[in-house]
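Researcher: Good morning. I'm working through a list of sequences from a screen, and I'd like to move beyond sequence-only analysis. For each chain I'm collecting a predicted structure so we can compare shapes side by side. This is the next one on the list. No need for commentary yet; just the structure.
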Amino acid sequence: RLKTEKNMKYINFARYGFMGALVLLGTTACSDDHYDVKSGAASSKTLWENIQSNGATDSLAMIMSRTYVMKNANDKSGKQTLGELLNQAQTFTVWAPKDGTYNASYYLKLLDKRDQLLAQSSDPTSQSNREAWQINYDVANQFVLNHIARFSNESNVGTQKVRLLNAKVSVYEVSHNLFNSVAVDASAGNIVSANGSLHLLNGRSPFAYNIYDYLAANPNFSKVWAALKDPKVDKETFSESGSTQGAMNENGQMVYVDSVYHQTNKILDACGARVKNEDSLYIAVLPSDAAFETAFNSVSSLFKYGSSYAYDWSSERRVFDKTDNNALRVNADSLQSYSAKDMLISSAFFSTSQFPVANQTDSAQVNYYATHADSIKSTNNVTYYNSNPGGVNPIFNGQSPYKASNGYIYAVNSYNVNPAYSIVSKNEIKLQYGFFIATTQNDLTALTTRQGTLVELTPANRNENVKGSVENNMYRRFEASNGNMTVDIILNNIYSTKYKISAIMLPNRTNIANIQYDRTTGQEIEETTTFDCDIIDDVTNRSIGSARNITISNDSIQSYVLFDSFEFPKCYVNLPAGYVSFPRLRFTLSRRNQTRGKTKSLNISKVILEPVRD
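Model: Good morning. Structure tokens for this chain:
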């Protein structure tokens, strides 16, 4: 059974004290003109005047008279109160909770705290100022605007969906006298006003939490929320160009009449999950506080960073330009913590628009598909496979979801995700694309030699005596001239985990043009290809793993396992922007393996890296 706000008893709204309670940053779909000051109201009472004069709404009037209109969570202008908004010549419908049916003192105390914080500093960038406006936004967005809609909603006597000024959608059942499941006081009737209609409610309309709201409000997600609100992740930037200048203050500082701020969150912005958006639908599978440490430790094992990384790869000279004292230095522990939390959270959201279900609004269909599908892909393209085919995917930990206004949240108390089955994916490096490779020899003369030769197999050159096939009938041929030949394959996006490393290799004789014949007998000379492999470290440029004397079959195209289980000692994913580093897979065809009866070439279709799954 889906858990709703009514049975979310464990949410402790007081955990934020008077510092903004739920710290919600939902966006509004309403245009800015909702808040423009307008003139010309009719002579009869406005909505605001009716709220002030009605003896049943004194508390609401007190709250509205002190709560400023904010166009969004970053608006700090505070020029107009919500009471003044309802005094304008715009049409609204208001469902006003009556005195004594809700905890009005809770909101009034929050506004007291807001005023105390504003008194501490007039600097809009100060922490106290930001906290103050966050409190104001919370009171407006979660409470007052949760009871107000644009336009008149009286023409439909049936059931209608109403979009409120906080962008939430509520159901108004006129014939049953219910608004968002709260009883409308039928005895009070429709209090017609000059600019709309006023109804009295026997209680507060419950705020419809979206996924982002739940993460802020639910104490079981305090660790996930702390990661999202880390100052390195969540930033508010003042836009001087977008703000309206006023006059200089006594300290010679510009005071802005209208200040514009831009809010960014590295984790949520990068993963593409718009979990504040009321018009999108997502499923979130996140570890509760009880499972967070286990989840973090599991994922962080993929992000073991070294103390330094060589970078600035020269494709011409086939070396890193920045090495030794010029190499990138990182705080390995800090980067590991950030990267693990980033991956843990950003790969936890799934867009239901990708689910092949008949009705996206049917909670049963949507959740059944998510929990029973063979695999589901997150918004940042991490695929979670179902290790329980036909049954519930273990990643859901047997939990029932909470219903949010824009989806469903599974708060898992046990982290049943093996990163090797999800985060670390199979990586195929196809050598038909030359920019993936680098080769060196002791007698290089041209760039084409360094890149090898791209060969396409056709009916005219294909040796039918060689079994097997290659993708797109293409491979890359590297031919030695004198001395040792090495072919370096760049390994991108490597995690600090175990990989099985294989290569699709072709016999030299696959292409009939490469077959060698005995000059005397005219018979084909049987040749073998034997080579060595190494993993080359970026900093030392030396081997940190080796495989020796790998021999290619002369009769078939095959996949050869170069390393059954090679564990990379450090991670190359999520390095600071602008710094690209990687290890290399080196094939070596030594001089000793170029004698008679042995080929002088390596023919490679692709290199495959697969996570080792214990």
